[in-house]
Q: What sequence folds into this?
């Protein structure tokens, strides 16, 4: 179950600080039938983000959904003709596990008077209403954010997922001599599982919070 902060959501999305009444301030005076506090908080906190990113000679659009500290990215995979469904099923599992296990539970968000909530990341494979569409081709090929191949590992998928969140590459590239930082040893450099706190700052800022250790 993803973390939520009652006081945090009330502050950020309800403008409520200090003491407050859940019934009065969250539910507006009465609790609708079959309604739960968690469902109400999730509805209040859910936001869609989309913004342009420009780095060196590259440009793309980052996009994701954020519900407090849970980030979901809807991805539509478009396999080339001839790639079997069984292969796509296996790849989907490998890529999902690689992405979610790499990015989730490394950092949290919190501030005084609010519980610290883990930053968690979810891949949702969809047929429509996607944040990102990815062509899948037979490998080996060089992959990028919008084109993956059948030999890509979960670590490669986690790197490309980082672009979807708005992070540029951090490896040395002769076509980008002024790139900075480089050779960082992070997920955006060499596909490692190293995710520094600076890559979490935008999610904390979205909810008016601070990145913290968990």
A:
């Amino acid at each position: 179950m993803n973390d939520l902060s009652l006081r945090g959501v009330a502050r950020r999305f309800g403008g409520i600080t200090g003491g407050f009444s859940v019934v009065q301030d969250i539910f507006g005076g009465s609790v609708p039938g079959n309604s739960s506090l968690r469902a109400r908080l999730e509805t209040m906190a859910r936001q869609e983000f989309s913004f342009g990113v420009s780095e060196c000679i590259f440009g793309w659009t980052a996009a994701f959904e954020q519900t407090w500290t849970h980030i979901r990215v809807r991805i539509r995979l478009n396999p080339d003709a001839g790639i079997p469904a069984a292969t796509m099923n296996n790849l989907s599992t490998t890529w999902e596990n690689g992405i979610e296990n790499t990015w989730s539970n490394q950092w949290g968000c919190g501030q005084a008077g609010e519980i610290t909530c883990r930053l968690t990341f979810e891949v949702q494979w969809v047929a429509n209403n996607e944040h990102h569409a990815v062509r899948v081709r037979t490998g080996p090929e060089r992959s990028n954010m919008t084109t993956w191949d059948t030999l890509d590992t979960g670590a490669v998928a986690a790197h490309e997922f980082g672009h979807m969140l708005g992070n540029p590459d951090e490896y040395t590239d002769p076509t980008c001599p002024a790139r900075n930082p480089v050779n960082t040893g992070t997920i955006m450099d060499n596909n490692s599982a190293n995710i520094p706190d600076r890559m979490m700052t935008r999610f904390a800022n979205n909810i008016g919070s601070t990145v913290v250790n968990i």
Summary: The first helix runs from residue 6 to 14. Helices lie at 6-14, 22-26, 37-45, 85-103, 154-164, 187-190, 201-206. The first strand starts at residue 46 and ends at 55.
